[in-house]
Amino acid sequence: MLSAACLLLYASLASSEGYSSPDAYETSVLILGAGAAGLQAARSLLEKNFTDFIILEGSNRTGGALQRIQFGGIELASGRMRLTSPDLQHAEKDNIGLKEVNYESYMVLNDYGEDLTDMFDQRYAAFEEADEKVYEIAEMVLAGQRQDISQKTALAMSGWVASTPLDRLVEWTELDFDEGIQSKRIPITAPYELQHMMGNKEDGMMMEEEYPPEYIITDYNQGFFPDVHAKLVPGKNLKFNKVVRNIDQSGDKVVVTAEGNLQYTADYVLVTFGIGVIQQEGVTFTPDLPPWKTEQIFRYQRGTIDPIFLRFSSSFWGNKEWIYHASERNDVDRHYYPGFLNLEAEGYYADCKMLVAFVTGEEALRVEGLTDGQVAEEILAVLRSMFGAETVSTLEEIHVERWASDPFHYGLFSTWPVPSNVPADAAQRLGAKVGRIFFAQQASDPFIGLTSGSIGASVTAMEQMSACIRGEECPDYEPDMSGNMGMGGVYDHDDDDELYTCIGIRIPKGEGKTRKNIPSSDNPTGTSISGTKK
Predict the structure, then answer these.
(1) Number of H helices, E strands in the chain
(2) Reported pTM
């Protein structure tokens, strides 16, 4: 939070008109991006009555990955559809409607319409057995006793090799569908990290709680950050369609150049857009960012989970919440339309006649290169093979999200670095400021990959900026160049109530990362349910 002393300084900097005028391209603080991190930064300033800032947004809307669409007469979440425990406080604050996901309501069909649900359960039990051993290896990594390896390698070491379409589907439900990348690129420790360990810290040890439930956004109401939107004035302190191309801090001020050679000058700049935009050289820096910074920007990966919305003339898929497809086209890197969410299931939208197909990682990239018509043809062929050609009704509407190729995102979220020679302070490097340029990078926060990660990174960056504005000591980060390696970075925060250190923590031996024994309305005791997230 910004202090009273900071507020007084802000007030002295603020213009007499309150907001920058439409033609004013000079301000105290420039916020680049109007996603969750950018809106949180604006909230931090507005809460202290500081109004001398401008948000530059490349698209024509706010929200970033918290996107919504009108489809079939219903407003649907189309980006970050799923939220988990750390996100709930933000959703509840903004009155967002949520439905708890029921991963125990599912069916599994292959390309010949055969019901493989029972076989899936058996293979899932084998996966869980291997996962117990993976958990032990992860403990050693987190204790600094060995370097990180990939999930796929650790599973193979533990006796699990996904050599059949069904096994690959099991792996997809537990790994790819969470991280948006293939298991061979997911660090072994990732599923055990803080986004799945939400609670107790005792004497330096992280105590694993039950795997947190997930929720799907069903009603945006006024949307996220309604208090911020009420005080943003498009054309004044919020400027749409301003695509940033260069950030120059070689002079006395920071100069941001957008397309059309529009230049904005500020004392401080907060960069909130995802690492994918920087990786794709959508934005350049003058002078160049230091190597210790750029190395981490390119080390971290971008996760992609693309929803494909489908509306039919009539429903034909039954009442299970999830429909899984064990395709013979599933291979190590690509899963051919592996999962469908039934939006007619209990708690969603009655009689809407809609499914949502999901594709991830490499398969998402392939699908994004197709036209909507080609995607529709492929999905209809899949559904006809699963349910029968005469059973599948007419597809009346389709909407395909393409997050990996979206020039304002290049991926739905930031996720873990490739597990190879990762410096112990990788996360700090990613989130560290450079001169007067601050970074709110989702992957630099313990809740990596989550909306809460974007918000938390923004809060941290604004606290640092506040100290600089107050004239306090705010040196640039000095990276650890000793060669110490860790898993994705040490998340070392002082707030014991929210964020914890990730590296060097011994996690007590438990049941692994899978979602078994999760209390829900159908299983209130959380005991002995077959499998987990399916």
Answers:
(1) 14, 23
(2) 0.83
Domain presence at residue 508: no
Residue tagged 């996720």 (tokens)? 415
pLDDT for 72-131, tens place per residue?
Answer: 999 999 988 888 878 888 888 899 999 999 999 999 999 999 999 999 999 999 999 998
- Smallest Cα–Cα separation from 83: which of 225, 222, 230, 195? 195
For residue 47, being part of any structural domain is answered with yes
- Residue 48 included in any domain: yes
CATH number for the domain harbouring residue 12: 3.50.50.60
Q: Quick check: 233 and 240 in contact, CB under 8 A?
A: no
Per the CB < 8 A criterion, the answer to whether 443 and 427 are in contact is: yes
pLDDT at 42: 96
Contact 349, 71 (CB under 8 A): no
Q: Which residues of 53-62 are buried (b: 16+ CB within 10 A; e: fewer)?
A: bbbbbbbeeb
The answer to whether the CB of 384 falls within 8 A of the CB of 376 is no
If we measure between CA atoms, which residue out of 86, 171, 92, 85 comes closest to residue 124? 171
Dihedral sign from CA coordinates of 283, 284, 285, 289: positive
Determine, yes or no, domain membership for 513: no
Rounded Cα–Cα distance for residues 420 and 370 (Å): 33
Contact 205, 505 (CB under 8 A): yes
∠ CA 245-251-255, rounded to 5° = 30
Q: What is the pLDDT of residues 304-340, one digit of tens each?
A: 999 999 999 999 999 999 999 999 987 766 799 999 9
**pLDDT for residue 515 is more than 60:** no
Q: In DSSP terms, which residues pair with 108 in a beta bridge?
A: 324
Rounded percentage of the chain residues whose pLDDT exceeds 70 = 80
What is the Rg, in whole angstroms, of the alpha carbon atoms belonging to the chain? Answer: 23
Number of domains in the chain: 1
Q: How many residues does the chain have?
A: 534
Q: How far apart are CA 179 and CA 311, in angstroms?
A: 27
Concatenated DSSP letters for 167-204? HHHHHIIIIIHHHSS-GGGSBTTGGGSGGG--SEEETT
Least confident range of 388-392, 437-441, 504-508: 504-508
Q: Which domain covers residue 33, as residue numbers?
A: 4-64+224-299+415-469
Residue 417 has phi, psi (to 5 degrees) of: -75, 155
Kindly tell me the burial class for residue 121, based on how many C-beta atoms sit within 10 Å of its own C-beta (0-12, 13-18, 19 or more). middle
Q: Which of these, 213, 144, 202, lies nearest to 508 by C-alpha position?
A: 202
Cα–Cα distance between 108 and 513 in angstroms, integer?
Answer: 22
Candidates 313, 309, 308; CA nearest to 392 is: 313
Average pLDDT of the chain, as a whole number:
81
Sign of CA dihedral 342, 347, 348, 352: positive
Beta bridge partners of 206: 201
Question: Residue type for 115, please?
Answer: D
For the residues 341-369, what does the mean pLDDT come to?
Answer: 95
**Continuous H helices in 191-287:** 226-229, 275-279
Per DSSP, 176 falls in state: I
